[in-house]
Amino acid sequence: MTSSMLLLNLIVDGVTLGCIYSLIAIGFSLLWWIAGIVHIAHGATMLAGGFALFAALEMGGAGLSVALLAGLLGAVALGVIVEIFMYRPLLNRGTDEMGILTASLGALIFFEYAITIAFGPEGATLDAGGLRTPVIQGLPLVFDRFSALIVCVTLLTFLALWFLLAKTQIGREMRAIASNLDLAEVLGINIRLVQVYAAAIAAALCLPPAAFLLFNTGLVPSEALHVVLVASVVAILGGRGSLLGALVAGLLIGVAESAMTWRFAAGWRQLITFSLLYVLLLVRPQGLFGERV
């Protein structure tokens, strides 16, 4: 394979990686935008969804649709539990952002170790099987059905979330709370209930990237913090509350990280991620598509 073709294949891999980053980031961004919570425990909900899916498929012998439902319930249940029993009591007591961040990090570490004890430190991996067949046979550019599925699911997920936020009552209430919390309360919006809905939606958004990681490189508990840190960078780069920003920033970081390995060792991939963040914060601190406050 020529050097230029290798770079092109790395870019294609970067697009699929960027889609996964975008899917993780948008759930993280949702709670940050609506509730003002830096949701580091988002990584724990991703682990809960992914390992519930794995357990249903490998240990329970369930079909894929039932396993996906189990994964969805696992992620949503943990996301709602963290919101109701950890974030709400802390916020009601006036805990500041650093306290919430520390508690969220502690929750991630707790669930990470709990899942490690249950499933082992090596994590879990599933075979994508026939989805690894190239879309077009014989081309030097490798783009298989699994990568195509990742791209399609990402686009459909973002379209569905846009419709929810723009065209539904709960979406309008979420946008009202994010825009002006005090005014939303005056208008009679149930702030606490809407934030629970937001936590459930953010947790549900963890299932697609968890499933993709499970069938791709594997889902390893110890990597949850790294994944959520990259997701936070994507959310900041894209702009707080911006769907388009999360998608574009995720693709940008995914392609940049993948292309980085064309000339450098894989260990340098994170250098480009945080370099991009630093440069953007200097030039445009509100993010690519965020609004200046």
Largest sheet: none
Helix-strand pattern: HHHHHHHHHHHH
CATH classification class = Mainly Alpha
User: What is the average of the pLDDT values?
Assistant: 88
* Number of helical segments with 4 or more residues: 12
Number of domains: 1
CATH architecture: Orthogonal Bundle
Quick one: overall form?
A: globular
If you consult CATH, what is the topology? ABC transporter involved in vitamin B12 uptake, BtuC
> What percent strand?
under 5%
Radius of gyration: 19 Å
Given the helix and strand composition, which structural class is it? mainly alpha
> What low-confidence regions span 5 or more consecutive residues with pLDDT below 50?
none
State the end-to-end distance.
49 Å
Protein model, in words:
By secondary structure, this protein is an all-alpha fold. The chain has a single domain (3-124, 141-283), classed as Orthogonal Bundle (ABC transporter involved in vitamin B12 uptake, BtuC). It is built from twelve helices and no strands. Helix 2 (42-59) crosses helix 9 and helix 5 packs across helix 6 (169-179). The relative contact order is 0.19. The mean pLDDT is 88.
